[in-house]
Amino acid sequence: MSVSRRAGDARARVSVGTALGIGWLAAVAVIAVARALHRGPSDADLAASPARLAAGELWPLVTSAFVIAGSPVVQIAATAVLLAAVVRLHGAGLFWLTAAAGHLGATLVTYAGVGVLWLVSRADVDSVVEAPDYGISAIWSAALGALAVGAAATPRWRWPTLVASAVCLLVLLAPTPFGGDLAGVEHVVAFALGATVTRWRVRAVRKQPRPAPSNEHGLLRLTRRPGPAGRPRRPSAVSASQPDRPGPPPATKS
Predict the structure, then answer these.
(1) Is-above-0.90 flag for pTM?
(2) What is residue 219's predicted lDDT score, i.e. its pLDDT?
(3) Domain of 50, in residue numbers
């Protein structure tokens, strides 16, 4: 497979992932408009919760990523910028890895902690067991973690990125208007998972062997020069490894 074909396949894969991201944001915007007009699905229809997960309902883990908790305009615009930045720096595939880790992974980790607390001290988590949990904030929190790791790899931006990451963690840990009681914990877990996935992916890419030099322009091609009439030259009857035999001595006049 030629280099140009491999590059075309890579661009095709990236374009598909980017199109899926745009389609997801478009679906989120349509649902937000429908909800604003009181014609869309309710929170209880699409939201997840520890109680629903314990009952075996897994589909709300996906549908909860299509409902916005808070200001739709601000979050859709911010998520679009983060989507474009992650795709530009790391590719659309990494965006979806971090999105899955941030939304699904952070939710499952947080719900597991709620389950442990429910076994130890049930009264402390009764208020969140059945509370609707939805929103896209975990996705853009994971995207922030991905960008933080990418920027930290550059020595020029390492310390500013670390400071900005610490500020982001403090903001995400604090109560925000973008979610319920579990939002603060989920935001921090999503940020950490997004950074971890990106770090793993960057190391995996660096460990891949470099491709061999391309022979596309014929620089490494070894060809035999054609003989007369375009035919390849045949090797001489005398091998190059054999010494030439001396001929008969010249005749002398008597």
Answers:
(1) no
(2) 46
(3) 10-207
